[in-house]
Amino acid sequence: MDYVNVNRLTKKYGDFTAVDNLSFTVKKGEIFGFLGPNGAGKTTTLNVLSTLSDFDRGEVEIAGFSLPKQEFSVKRILGLVPQEIALYTDLTARENVTLFASLYGLSGAALKSAVDEALAFVGLADEAKKRAKKMSGGQQRRLNIACGIAHGPELIIMDEPTVGVDARSRDLIMGSIRTLNERGATIIYTSHYMPEVQELADRIAIIDHGRLAAIGTEEELLSHVTDRKTLRVGVDGKGDAALIETLSRLPGVKHASLADAELRVDVDLTLPSISPIIGTLMERGLAVKSLAEEAPTLETTFLALTGNELTKEGA
Q1: Domains assigned to the chain
Q2: Burial of 291: CB neighbours in 10 Å, binned 0-12, 13-18, 19+
Q3: Angle formed by the axes of helices 93-102 and 137-149, to 10°?
Q4: In 10 A of CB 306, how many CB atoms?
């Protein structure tokens, strides 16, 4: 069942078209990954779905309610966890959650119960009296989630909820997202970290230049890339931009990047030999410590469809 229906959505800022005739659906009860490089129109689309922005053309329907005509009805069932932390730093954790939950009409015993549950849910019950400005970055991220879900929303939009957090907070946030979904919430999730999307999302949409590039399960998206493979080359030595540029110009090389002493080279599936690649490394004084070949991944698919690496360029 389609819970969110976006049909031919178009949004312009002056002469610039941020979202261009975009159509997709989100099913009730699924975790929907929404990816795109910087400037792809992802944030603009999320702002429309969150009722924070109007649009020029198209149709947007959420839970049977049409935007913008039934905006108030959509707001009542919506929970938003923005990328920028939206807290009152001089207020305590409890005061923050109480304030946001009360905006949805909760009061009295129901409000107190909802606030207690939300704080416990994100692991902050023992920090309820701490002011937000005294909290760590990870705690603030978790409090940000508590403020967005205390009223029990049916649809939750999460925009980069794990940016800048430590591993423990990341694990807690990932676990809370799965639990929210198991309780029945439909979740639209964005992240610059591909493994999170692979772990959580039932289906994924990739947009680029305001248009839908691909949509489907991970397996369905991988089917878009059948012409390349990835070489992972561990090197002993220091690479630079000149090396990457040289490798990128070699016949059959589609993309090259270097991170943490590992070189990633996407090449044509039919490339007869990797000798030119190894030769280039040797000419630059880089010794090859390891070499592995892998089939196309979701990251490879994203790169092929958008020309950008998600983990480096952002979402």
Answers
A1: 2-222 (3.40.50.300), 228-295 (3.30.70.100)
A2: middle
A3: 30
A4: 20
d(CA 152, CA 168): 25
Residues β-bridged to residue 7? 59
What is the phi/psi pair of residue 256, to 5°? -140, 145
The mean-pLDDT minimum among 75-84, 138-147, 287-296 falls in 287-296
Q: Has this prediction a pTM greater than 0.90?
A: no
Spatial neighbors of 64 by CB under 8 A, at least 6 apart, are none
In terms of Cα–Cα distance, which of 36, 150, 148 is closest to 85? Answer: 148
Structure token pair of residue 62: 């959420």
Q: Six-digit token pair at 176?
A: 């809370």
CA distance linking residue 50 with residue 43, whole number of Å: 10
246: three-class secondary structure by DSSP: helix
The region of weakest confidence among 44-48, 248-252, 294-298 is 294-298
Alpha helices, DSSP H, located in 129-235: 137-149, 167-182, 194-200, 218-222
Token pair belonging to 6 = 């976006």
For residues 82 and 46, give the distance between their C-alpha atoms in angstroms, rounded to a whole number.
10
pLDDT above 80: residue 309: no
Token pair in block for residue 211: 């248009």
Cα–Cα distance measured from residue 76 to residue 149, given in angstroms and rounded to the nearest whole number: 12
Q: Which residue has the tokens 């772990």?
A: 199
